[in-house]
Specification:
Number of helices: 3
Largest sheet: none
Strand content: under 5%
Order of helices and strands: HHH
Shape: rod-shaped
Structural class: mainly alpha
Helix content: over 70%
Length: 108
């Protein structure tokens, strides 16, 4: 049987692992882009884990910076989707662990 303390430990581990993966993905992407392209308006610097819906302005001339901004925005779309998927996973795992714990305690 799974006791309540162990269930809580599993929940914390799953949550911490999800956050660590998401954080490392976001940090790596931000570091690479900051190194490749100066950001005079601070657009990239304003994007963080709580503001993944923000996007970089795509300049009008169709040059390398235009394509880089499009690529960055595409990457941000993928990071935002990945973040939402990880949040759903952690939420589902939490629900499953709580349900299992309640069932083992005779509460479900």
């Amino acid at each position: 049987m799974l006791d309540t303390a162990r269930s809580g430990q599993y929940e914390q581990i799953i949550h911490a692992q999800g956050k660590a993966v998401a954080s490392s993905q976001k940090s790596a992407g931000k570091s690479v882009l900051s190194a490749l392209c100066p950001d005079p308006g601070g657009q990239i610097a304003r994007i963080n884990a709580s503001r993944l819906s923000e996007r970089v302005e795509v300049p009008v001339p169709n040059d390398e910076i235009h394509r880089l901004a499009q690529t960055l925005n595409s990457m941000l779309d993928k990071l935002q989707a990945s973040d939402a998927e990880q949040r759903r996973f952690v939420s589902d795992a939490r629900h499953d662990l709580l349900t299992l714990t309640k069932a083992n305690d005779g509460g479900a």
